[in-house]
Amino acid sequence: MSMKHIAGLSVIVLLAILHCVAGLSLEPRLPGGRCKCFKQTYQFIKPNKLTRVEFFPPGRSCPQLECLVTLKNGDIVCVNPKAGWLQRLIAYLKEKNGGKRGVSVANSTSI
Fold first, then answer.
1. Burial of 77 (0-12, 13-18, 19+ CB in 10 A)
2. How many Å apart are CA 36 and CA 29, to the nearest integer?
3. Mind giving me the DSSP string for 2-57?
4. Are 34 and 26 in contact (CB under 8 A)?
5. Which residues, including other chains, have CB under 8 Å from residue 57's CB and lie 6 or more apart?
6. Count of domains in the chain?
7. 87 with 46, same domain?
8. Where in or outside the cell (predicted)?
9. How large is the C-alpha radius of gyration of the chain?
10. Is the Cβ–Cβ distance between 107 and 65 less than 8 Å?
11. Which end of the chain, N or C, is surrounded by fewer C-beta atoms within 10 Å?
């Protein structure tokens, strides 16, 4: 084995040990292991322009609740989950659904 291979293998073994012993999370360093939204809006979006509403709960890769809204034109908008209009829309959909499954706010859930 060359010196480069030994050094590379040593780094991998060290990272594996740190991950197991110290609980080091490598997730944020991997692609897709970050928050999806850099900016969020409170701006009202007409419900007839929406095709999908997704919620992503806080986790190791992102400490905040995120709401991604997909519009009929294909655009994706990050909406602040505390936006009043969004809260009213969720309440309306839950009421309309009559408590049946399909409208929930958990792990990457669509409404």
1. middle
2. 14
3. -HHHHHHHHHHHHHHHHHHHH----GGGSTT-S-S-SS-B-----GGGEEEEEEE-
4. no
5. 65, 106, 107
6. 2
7. yes
8. Secreted
9. 20
10. no
11. N
Tens of pLDDT along the chain (111 residues)? 677 767 666 656 555 554 444 443 344 444 556 899 989 999 999 999 999 999 999 998 899 999 999 999 999 999 999 999 999 998 998 888 876 655 444 444 445
Find residue 55's DSSP bridge partners: 67, 109
How far is Cα 58 from Cα 106, in angstroms, rounded to an integer?
Answer: 10
Look up residue 102 and give its amino acid.
G
Same domain? 71 vs 17: no
